[in-house]
């Protein structure tokens, strides 16, 4: 029976991997409907260790553990060890007893960086990484994020470009919650200068219907044309994966490049450190010097006609572009 379950999971994971690769996050996980129990998951390279703090049939707290290598990047399949007869907190230490595999099989199927399905002892539960204080999908973006953009499809010799996004606050426009920020002038100070806000402004919005974060970045000039970077991201608590479309304002290219990013400065740092809300004048830069990241590739901006895509893909692109158009309209009206 377990072999068939693994085959079904493997098929699901294969299809998921075709759509998008991701890395599950280490941390405290839980089922929001079962407060009081949880799962401590630690991932190092492709090895995963999990400790379950749950309860037995009598309601007594119980620890189970398991550890093995992931299959692919998203399937954990092992057996639960039963741990008992441990040492009390202020007693002389004696090694606890462990019965390896005593509680049967356990599988964890990661769907995204921070969501998964766990199965053990006949139960199947949806779990997610516990968000202690980062807030909702918009608030949790506050802080600094760095990422790598992959332009290898363009055929350039050096296709990888780094970028930085600093989210400083949130605002409501037309009843929609947005995150505001900039591409900062450096990664040391942790704040948005007036120059960065005026020339490399960033606006983000989380769309619950698609379960994605939409981020639009004013990139700058490439070959005399002012470009925009539009990101669509699947975001965990510490990192994200998705793609970016580079285009002129109002003229979409329908070509997308992979991107992966991670948090590099906390919300507390940008709010209470130097503080991104405490804008300051840039030292010497002027608007005529604004050049975009895309200019580093030294290529013409490629594009693809929407009619060349499948009907399903056209609908997806129309939805995507509609969200970005509304975001920019709300931003201009603010």
Give the topology:
Blueprint: H1 2-19, E1 27-30, E2 38-44, E3 47-55, E4 61-69, E5 75-79, E6 81-84, E7 97-99, E8 105-110, E9 115-120, E10 123-129, E11 143-150, E12 160-173, E13 176-182, H2 194-199, E14 201-207, E15 212-222, E16 225-235, E17 239-248, E18 257-265, H3 267-272, H4 311-333
Antiparallel strand pairs: 1-2, 1-10, 2-3, 3-4, 4-6, 5-8, 6-7, 8-9, 9-10, 11-12, 11-18, 12-13, 13-14, 14-15, 15-16, 16-17, 17-18
Task: Describe the protein.
This protein has helices at 2-19, 194-199, 267-272, 311-333; strands spanning 27-30, 38-44, 47-55, 61-69, 75-79, 81-84, 97-99, 105-110, 115-120, 123-129, 143-150, 160-173, 176-182, 201-207, 212-222, 225-235, 239-248, 257-265. The chain has 334 residues and is of the alpha+beta class. The protein has two domains: 2-129, Lipocalin, CATH 2.40.128; 139-333, no CATH class. Strands 5-8-9-10-1-2-3-4-6-7 form a ten-stranded antiparallel beta sheet, covered by helices on one side. An eight-stranded antiparallel barrel has the order 11-12-13-14-15-16-17-18. A hairpin with a 3-residue loop joins strand 16 (225-235) and strand 17. The longest helix is centred in the last third of the chain and has 23 residues, at 311-333. The protein starts with a helix and ends with a helix. The model is unreliable at 7-19 and 274-282 (pLDDT under 50).
């Amino acid at each position: 029976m377990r072999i068939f379950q693994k085959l079904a999971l493997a098929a699901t994971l294969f299809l998921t991997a075709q759509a998008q690769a991701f890395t599950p996050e280490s941390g405290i996980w839980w089922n929001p409907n079962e407060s009081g129990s949880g799962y401590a998951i630690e991932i190092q390279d492709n090895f995963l260790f999990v400790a379950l703090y749950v309860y037995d049939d009598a309601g007594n707290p119980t620890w189970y553990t398991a550890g093995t290598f992931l299959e692919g990047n998203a399937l954990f399949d092992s057996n639960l060890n039963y741990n008992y007869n441990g040492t009390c907190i202020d007693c002389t230490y004696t090694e606890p007893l462990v019965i390896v595999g005593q509680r049967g099989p356990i599988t964890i199927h990661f769907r995204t960086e921070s969501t998964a399905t766990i199965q053990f002892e006949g139960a199947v539960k949806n779990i997610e990484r516990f968000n202690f204080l980062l807030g909702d999908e918009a608030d949790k973006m506050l802080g600094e994020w760095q990422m790598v953009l992959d332009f290898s499809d363009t055929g350039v010799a050096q296709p990888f470009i780094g970028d930085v996004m600093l989210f400083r606050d949130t605002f409501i426009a037309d009843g929609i919650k947005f995150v505001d920020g900039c591409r900062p002038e450096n990664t040391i100070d942790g704040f948005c200068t007036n120059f960065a806000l005026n020339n490399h402004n960033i606006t983000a919005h989380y769309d619950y219907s698609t379960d994605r974060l939409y981020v639009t970045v004013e990139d700058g000039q490439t070959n005399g044309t002012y470009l925009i970077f539009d990101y669509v991201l699947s975001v965990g608590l510490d990192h994200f994966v998705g793609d970016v479309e580079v285009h002129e304002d109002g003229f979409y290219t329908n070509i997308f490049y992979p991107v992966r990013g991670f948090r590099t400065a906390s919300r507390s740092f940008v709010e209470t450190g130097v503080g991104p809300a405490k804008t300051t004048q840039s030292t010497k830069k002027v608007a005529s010097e604004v050049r975009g990241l895309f200019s580093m590739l030294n290529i013409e901006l490629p594009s693809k006609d929407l009619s060349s895509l499948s009907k399903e893909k056209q609908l997806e692109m129309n939805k995507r572009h509609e969200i970005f158009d509304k975001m920019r309209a709300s931003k201009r009206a603010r």
